[in-house]
Amino acid sequence: TIIATICMLIYIWIRFKDIKFASAAVIALIHDVLVVIGFYAVSRVAVGTTFIACLLTIVGYSINATIVIFDRIRENRTKLGRNNYSALVDTSVKQTMTRSLFTSLTTFFTVLCLYIFGVQSVREFVLPIAIGIICGTYSSIFISGNIWYIISNATSKKKAAANAKPAKAKK
Q1: What does the pLDDT look like over 15-30, one tens digit per residue?
Q2: Can you give the three-state secondary structure of the chain, one letter per residue?
Q3: pTM higher than the cut 0.85
């Protein structure tokens, strides 16, 4: 899972040409993984190869929805400007929310059917996946864009402060 997360960090960094997108996506992914690990701990589900498969499935599913939102942010940067990060994230999330919710609901209902009609070994796999879909949808819509906003806002303020410092006069 750590190797997959590092590879996704590098991929997103290259694709978006911005470490801020990659950092925000990885933080949201870590959130998803920690929620599923917490679910495993609380529900006392046995950990095995199914555990690794669940985590990797959730990471892959969650990053897909996050990339859709980040792609919209990147597209909207040219329309809304580069300095109004709040409006940029808000508009981009609104534009992609319906798609994200419908995709997640469709997948969730499929996983729910697998849980209801599946055998015990399938249930051990799909229950954490269902938790991961809910958590991944939440983090993609509500966490990843906000983390990007915080990082972008902080770096732009730091750049503005560095540019505002007067140069020392030479004698």
Answers
A1: 888 888 888 888 988 8
A2: CHHHHHHHHHHHHHHHCCHHHHHHHHHHHHHHHHHHHHHHHHHCCCCCHHHHHHHHHHHHHHHHHHHHHHHHHHHHHHHHCCCCHHHHHHHHHHHHHHHHHHHHHHHHHHHHHHHHHCCHHHHHHHHHHHHHHHHHHHHHHHHHHHHHHHHHHHHHHHHHHHHHCCCCCCC
A3: no
